[in-house]
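Deliverable D5.2: sample structural annotation.
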Amino acid sequence: MQKYNFYLLLTLGLFWACNGSTTKSSSDSKFSAEELKEQQVLWDELMAVHDEVMPKISNIHKLGRQLKNYNETKQGVPEIVSKRVESTITFLEEADESMFSWMNNLRQLKPLQDTEKHKDILIYLRAEQERMAKVKEVMLMSLEEGSMLVQELGITNQK
């Protein structure tokens, strides 16, 4: 029985020793808990704005298709109306592109933490929050303009 207890204790001791060496503790981070929290809060705020406006991309696409279809199928439209439709389509496309450009250029938080200093991460995240605010503004303005034009022109197709 003592032999069994010895092996059990030895096995448990090895398990704890190995487990302790493979588990990364928060003290291994080059950032304090407060710094990590501050970075995460800024990241979460940034992602909240992204998550708020990203679903609106489908509405931007829908309005763009409706206006393109109108321009392609409607006969006898005054040139001023046709140009307004074209400029609104361009505005919608720019809003769409601004979101995808922003997403493609965004650096993820973990790689930032691996390569940057805390101060630099905060500067970067705050700048990205400003960029995302501009993307949101452009998207909302293009949606408003596109929706108003669709309504004014009486476009009812759901393409």
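Annotation notes: Residues 4-27 have pLDDT under 50 and may be disordered. Helices lie at 2-22, 33-53, 57-73, 79-105, 109-115, 118-153.
The annotation will be released with the project's public dataset once the embargo ends.
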